[in-house]
Amino acid sequence: MNDSSDNPTPKGSMDLSLNDLKAVKGVLPLPAEIELKWRLFEKRFDYAWDCFDFHAKQRMTMFNYFLIFVGFVITGYANLLKDGSYWISTALALVGAGLTVVFVVLERRNEELVNIAEDVLESLESDVLFDEYEREILWPNRRERLWGPMKDKRKRKPSGIFRRQSAEDKEFKKSKYEHGKWLPRFQLYIIVMFLVLAALPWIQCT
């Protein structure tokens, strides 16, 4: 985790730090150098947030479309099986399994892009937005068990969003409930289901 007090901005750098803002506290208008750094900081933050927001929403939108896709395939499969069209129902199930693999690949790429944006946002939080910002907060903000209560111990810890998440990941294991863990698992189960459905008509015939 970055800390501008431990890592002062190198002379001539265009990176804004909390120390830069402390140095000009109460000075208006801001010196040209600080004003330029601030504008660059804002551009960096907006750019990183827009990327994060776009790909995070895209992940969930694609997952919603995936659920609709699975529903259509299962409905079509059931109708074909009822009509005795075994070859076509098997082919449809195999197509469903193949396209699910495509959804998994696209999900993984979106996950990578989301993580890249998160890293940039975390660094901006640590350098300026939440540097030296510590509060009494619930720590860690996680459940030990799926149906258990949240942690309720209050501690003075670094606050922020991605900055705090990174601090919790370093002190504890990563969350058990990350999207990157559960979405691919769910899609793997769907692939297995489609493969079973593809074989089912021929198992029944034997």
Describe the structure.
The protein is mainly alpha-helical and 206 residues long. It has a domain at 29-130 and 179-205. 67% of the residues lie in helices and 5% in strands. It is built from five helices and two strands. The protein has helices at residues 18-23, 32-82, 86-129, 162-171, 179-205, and strands spanning 134-138, 154-158. The chain has a two-stranded antiparallel ribbon. It is elongated. The termini are far apart. The model has no long low-confidence stretch (mean pLDDT 89).
Q: What Rg do the Cα atoms give?
A: 25 Å
Averaged pLDDT: 89
What is the chains' assembly state?
Answer: single chain
Shape call: elongated
How do the helices and strands follow one another from N- to C-terminus?
A: HHHEEHH
| Percent range for β-strand residues | under 5%
**Widest sheet: strand order?**
1-2
Helix content: 55-70%
Spans of at least 5 consecutive residues whose pLDDT stays below 50 are none
Main beta sheet: 2 strands, antiparallel
How far apart, in Å, are the first and last alpha carbons?
62 Å
Structural class determined from secondary elements: mainly alpha
**What is the tally of helical segments?**
5
Q: Got a strand count?
A: 2
